[in-house]
Structure formats: C-alpha cells, structure tokens
What we know:
Blueprint: E1 10-11, E2 20-30, E3 36-46, E4 55-59, E5 64-70, E6 73-74, E7 78-81, E8 84-88, E9 93-102, E10 112-116, E11 119-123, E12 142-152, E13 158-161, E14 164-170, E15 175-187, E16 193-196, E17 199-206, E18 212-219, H1 228-245, E19 253-259, E20 266-267, E21 272-276, H2 289-304, E22 313-314, H3 320-340, H4 345-367, E23 379-380, H5 389-422, E24 426-427, H6 429-440, H7 449-452, E25 458-466, E26 471-479, H8 485-490, E27 497-504, E28 527-531, E29 535-540, E30 548-551, E31 560-562, H9 567-576, H10 580-604, H11 612-622, H12 629-635, H13 641-647, H14 653-670, H15 672-681, H16 692-708, H17 715-727, H18 731-747, H19 752-765, H20 769-780, H21 790-798, H22 808-821, H23 823-826, H24 832-845, H25 849-856, H26 867-883, H27 887-897
Parallel strand pairs: 2-12, 18-19, 19-21, 22-24, 25-31
Antiparallel strand pairs: 1-23, 2-3, 3-9, 4-8, 5-6, 5-9, 7-8, 10-11, 12-15, 13-16, 14-15, 17-18, 20-21, 25-26, 26-29, 27-28, 27-30
Helix pairs in contact: 1-2, 2-3, 3-4, 3-5, 4-5, 5-6, 9-10, 10-14, 12-16, 13-14, 15-16, 16-18, 17-18, 18-19, 18-20, 19-20, 20-22, 24-25, 24-26, 25-27, 26-27
Amino acid sequence: MADTATPPVIRRADYAPPAFLIDTVALEFDLIPDRTVVRNTMRVRRNPQASRAARLELMGEQLEFVSAAVDGQPFAGAHAHEHGLLLDNVPDDFELTLTSICDPVANTTLSGLYVSGGNFFTQCEAEGFRRITYFLDRPDVMATYTVTLRASKADYPVLLSNGNLLEEGDLPDGRHFARWEDPFRKPSYLFALVAGKLVALEERVKSGSGKDKLLQVWVEPHDLDKTRHAMDSLIHSIRWDEERFGLELDLDRFMIVAVSDFNMGAMENKGLNIFNTKYVLANPETATDTDFANIEAVVGHEYFHNWTGNRVTCRDWFQLSLKEGLTVFRDQEFSADMAGGASDEAARATKRIEDVRVLRQMQFAEDAGPMAHPVRPESYVEINNFYTMTVYEKGSEVVRMYQTLFGRDGFRKGMDLYFKRHDGQAVTCDDFRHALADANGRDLAQFERWYSQAGTPRVSVRTQYDAAQQQYNVTLTQGYGEAAPAARETQKGPLPIPFAIGLIGKDGADLPLQLQGETAASASTTRVLEFTQAEQTFTFVNVAQEPLPSLLRNFSAPVIVEYDYSEEELAFLLAHDSDPFNRWEAGQRLATRELLTLAARAATGAPLQLDDSVVAAFARVLTDESLSPSFRELALMLPSEAYLAEQMPESNPAAVHAARQFVRKRLANALKGDWLKVYEQHRTPGEYEATPEAAGHRALKNLALTYLAELDDPAEAVRLASAQYDAANNMTDRSVALAALLNAAAANGGSAEAQKALDDFYQRFEKEPLVIDKWFALQATQRGSAQRPVIDVVRKLMSHPAFNLKNPNRARSLIFSFCAANPAQFHAEDGSGYAFWADQVIALDAINPQVAARLARSLELWRRFTPTLRDSMRAALEKVASQVKSRDVREIVEKALA
C-alpha cells in the first residue's frame, strides 16, 4: 500500500485540462498469473486547449518498467518512479510504446488486473488502470482501444475484452489469442478484460432498429443454471431504455461476467460489464426475493451506464454524480416500471418507499457527519471514498426533481438534448443541468445549489385557514437546522424545492386545488409548489372546509419536513391519504414518535407503555385487504434501530433496542390472531414465482412470522418457523424461518430447533458461496442476549473454515453485518464491539483498503452517542489512526477525529 505521509488534497477548483491527449490505444497482454507482460502502444499528442508542458507525466502503480519507445525507436528519456513514469522532451505528436510487468495474483486490492478463482479480471474505476499500464489515467482522456490477449488455452480458454471480437486463434506452445476492438472513445476507467474457464448463457435479440445483438452472461460452469434471471433482466433493460429514452444498444454484443472477489456491486465497462456474483446468480433455492429484485436493478443500472456514463462520461471525478446519480434515477424508474408500469401508482409507490427508506437511513446520516459533502464534492484525498450515498442516492433525488418539475416528457426532451450535445464527450454536472434548462425553456441557475451545498435541508410548514374567505395559507420556510460543519460551510442560499402537496377533506377525499390568481382549480389533486425562497406563502382559494395537508407527496424533494401533526391526524392520513407514499409516511411518523418517547423512558429505566390507539392504527393496516400485501408489509415494518438512534439528541442504541423490542412484543401479543390469519392467507403454495405480486405475499406472510416470534410464548411461532424451514422451496421462506428461529431462541435462552436449522442450512448449501454469506449474516445480525452476546458468535465464526477475510462478500457478510446492521450488539456498553471493529479495519487495510474504508465509516458519527460509548469509540478510532497506512482509511478516521 504505497502512500505518502501526508496525502495531498485534490480540489475541484484546481482542475486543468490534460497537457496531452491519447487518441488510440493498442494493448497486448501475455497473461501469466504472477508476471503478466503488458505492451501498450498509444498515439499521443499535445492538447491544444492546455498549457504547454515540458514533459509527459503518466500514472503508474505497482508496475515493473521494462522499456519505452517513441515512434518505434528506443527512448532514453523515460524515468519510472513509485507513482508513474516521466518522459522528457517528447514530440508534439507521436507514437509511444511502453512495456511493463504486473503481478495479478498478488493483487489483493482487487483494483487493476487481478486473479480470482484462477481466472483473470479487472476493475479500473476509479484509478485501477494505472496498475495495469502507465497511462493518463483520468476520465477526460478518451481513446479508442484495440486489445490483444494471449494466454494458455487449457487454463484460460475464454478471452474477453471491450467491444467487438475481431479475430481469435491458436498460438504455439498451447497458447491462443483473441483480438477485440471497441469502436467508441472511452476513458481508461472503462477498460476491462476477463480470461479464464467460463461458460455463457447466450441470447440473440433485435434492437429497435432491427439490428442483431448477441447477449452473453459468463459464469463459472457450476453456476450456469443461475443465470436466467440476469439474462431476462438484461433484455428488459435493453427494451426499457429503447422505449423510455430512445437509447439503443450500440455494440454487436453485450457481455456480463460474474466474479466472486469484487469490491463493488458491478462495473459498467463498455460492453463487458463485470459483476459481483451476488448481482448475477439466482435461482429460487439460493436467492431471496430481495436478491431477484436487486439483480434486476443492478443489471439495469450497469446497462443504462452504456449511455449515461460511457457514451457521455465525467470530465473529472468531482462530476461522479453526473453518471451515478443519473443512472440510479434511471434504474429506480426501470424497477418501478417493471413493478407497476407507468400507471399503477400503488406498485410504483412501494419501490419509492424502499428507495426513500435507504436514503433517510444512510444518506441523511452521512449528511449529518464528518464525511458530509455536496453531490458534487469540492475536494477529496482518496476518490474511492466518494462513491457515497450522497453522490448516488441524493444525486438521484436531484435528477428526480427535474422530472418532477418538467414531467416525463420534459425530462425526456432534456435527455435528448444532452446526448445531442455531448455524445462522445467528458462533461460536467452543469452541462446536464443546462441541457434540461434549455430543452424546457427554464432558468435553472439556482438549481446549481443542489450540487454545491452539503446537508439535508429542513422545510418547516405553517398553515392557516380563513373560513370566511375560504382561503388556506401554506407557509414554507427552509433551512438546515443543526447541520454538520461541512454542511454549514457550503451553504450559499435558498434551494429551489419542488414541494408536492395535497389537501384532504374531513371525509378523507382530496379537495380541488386552486392557487390565488388562477381562474380554475387544477385537474390534479396533487400540486407541485415551486418553493425557491427562504420563506414563501402559497394561498389556496375556494377551500370550502379546513383541510388536512398531505405534505411532500411521493417525497418530491430530499428534505426533512417539520409539521406538528397530532396523533389523530397521522392516524387519519394513514387511513385515508390518496398518496401511497404519504400514507406510509404517516404510519412511520406515528411509530417514530412513539418509539422515541419510549426510548427516552427506557434510557432512564422508567416503565414502558404503548397507547392502544397505536395498536389500533397498526391493526387497521394489517387487516385492510384493499391495500396490497407489499404496501402493508412496508407500512407495518417499524423504523430501524439505526434510524431511530439518529433522531435522538444523544444516540442510545440500547434504549432504542429496548423500546423497539417492547413495541414489537406488544404488537405481536395484541394482534396475535390477526398475525396468524395473515400468515395463513398469504402463503404462496406451488412453484416459486419471482414476480412482484408473489414477492409481496411472501413479504407480508414472513413479516407476520417475525412478529409471531416475539410472542411471550413463542412455541407456536417456533412450530410455524420450523415447518416453514423444512417445507420451503425457496430461499426467501427458508432464510426468514431461520432468522425467526434464531430470534425466538435469543429471547428464550436458546432452542434446539434454531441450532438444528442452522446446522442443516450450512450442510445443505456448503457449496453455494452466496448462500453461505447469508448464513454468516444471519448469525451476525441475530438478536443475542446477555448470556450469549453476538460478538462471541462473530469472533468464533472468524475462524470458521468457510470464512475468508480476503473475499469482500465474506467480510461484508460477517463483519459488516455485525458492525452496521446489529446496533444493539455492536454498541455494547463494554466497548467490545468497537475493539473488534478496530482490529478488523486494521487487518483489512493491509489487504484491501477500499473495503477497509467502508468498514471504517461505521464509527464516523461517534460524537452523537452517549458519553460512555463516545469514549470507547474515540479510543478505537485513535487506535486505527495510529496503525493504518492507506489513504483510503486515513481520510475517514482523520475526518472523524478532527
């Protein structure tokens, strides 16, 4: 891990165009696991738009320099160093040939060219290409690539790279070759190669213009039976992008390759997407409903990058959300359309709720911590640390606001203009914003603040009804409250906030909406208010009765709404709001309010009580057959412990856990009969179907089972869970049954049924790595007890033969699951969780800094906890800071401690 003592800070304000450009690249690889030779021939010229440089500076890491030639002649002016190659006195336009050697088998960082399971793979985003060859490894240097791969035919029968296959054939000594050409200019981060013993599921489809396309999903031979869903997801993605945005697949073939050792979910390399196996492999026995949905979303996301990221890419890494925020928005819309089309608002709302839950729990927390940054950051030390929830999820919400303002047609017009202007270019977030503005004839200058201001805005709402005038005033005020320092430093003024609102009458029906100055009421009962000032009042006229406002419908902007609803009003919205998102939101507000009150009492040791009205509100949702099963499951799911702890003035995970468990038990016991009835009604007998409808029934049934496991006497739940485990024909039902058994056992001092199922699960799926990941995660996230703390289970599992710290999926399944998804156990009063965390961050830092940095973020909000926990966290952070070497982890812990 080569790093400097004081890593430099890279600033957006310092951007300068490259002094040289590279027009073509011809790469030749002689693939040998511990000594791969790379010959790189480039056509280089000075950039007429940049200042003249005295020398050419190329990036390079962990490379052995062999030789350099300029225009075919040996070049003596090349000087290799730890971070690259300097070439003095080069011509203005020339051919540069470099030969170097790398060691893929020793590359545990999984960045650059590496070996996994005996096969070769690459990961070049963000700065991995410099570990393959010396290069101008920056996204605004775009070239066309020709790639020749040579390797042992017996060991590596499949040789893949970007673009179209030109030729392949045999070589002497049992070797063979393949030559690929990508006709589209691309930055180096989109380069990819794969070599190994793989097989493919193939499909041929016709594009919208009638051209034949070859689609391939490449996997290890034993996984071929788990590729159908990924292939179907790819076909759906291709069709959707043609229909929704008029964007057609531009290559003759499109390939997906699955690898088990991968730092991310997937990578959109042009025409050769490399995926973590987690987001490719699925069959009913090994994958849950969530896995099926995630595969569809991630396959869509990476395919959609073919245009939003590849054909138009980022000028620099500060513009990362240009491709990621936009493409997350596109994959969210794709998933919503797959679930409900354009017209089924209830089904689309379920997807929307799921996305907002993630945003609130993770991105809002990021906005409140030391790593808070704008959607377009102003500086970084290590770019890998800025693949964040803010860049992705908040970036997606910023894109969604354009569509909220302009509608689907207006947004499509903006996208069309964006591609017309910038196809084949490396551009900025401002270029995207200008295209949307110009296509719709709007001034979006103020919208730039969404890209440059950190923090989560708060919108406080005041209302006033004038019965005599039949007027209803809605006053909106925006600010940031007690924002993190990073947020305060970046604020430049009020944001433009599309604020969707409805007014509900006493009978539960939506009222007509007519703003002052308008001649008639709107046809829609939801109105998007363009809120652009620090404070603004909107007056609705001809309001015949005092309404109840339905605020920020469909979560029309990534803000926190402050409005003092009474419990009765929240219950009314939960029962009647026509906006499915806000109906769910009312229930969450009601539950959050009760849970925080109970947590405050639990922190002082006071007795806990839950009002009968809350139980009644939950009962109404549980028994309302007019609501879809998937919606009911989401509405009946309590806010997470992590989210609740963040809402407290001083986070107290133990108190939150006590409060949440109390409510779960109360709801379980009070509604036992209803839970049992729902469990029986929503069984899905017969062959497994990976459809949204079937998944919704399973989700509600399994939620009922998890509540039943909370009963004071869980014998019936244990019987149901054991029977479900034994009879399950799908991983969704089997894994939920196992989790229910584990939690029932924790509450009742252990059970033979839980251990029996746990042992059976491992033996049944020992040869399925992704399922064994679930086995580790289920144990890491179980409830635990004073007699059997989960950290003891986790420490023991660290020495299990199936555990491997070098595999990111396995590390995430056990260590990350415990540290990030089991707050009550991780935040133990004795600080044992933090000591464990520190040891694992340090160990991972020596192997894979990217993975270590993601784990390091578990303690970045340490200042918000109770004093005892705070002191233990600080000690753990200081230990990590004193021992880690990578800039990835140091940036995280130093910002946390600053």
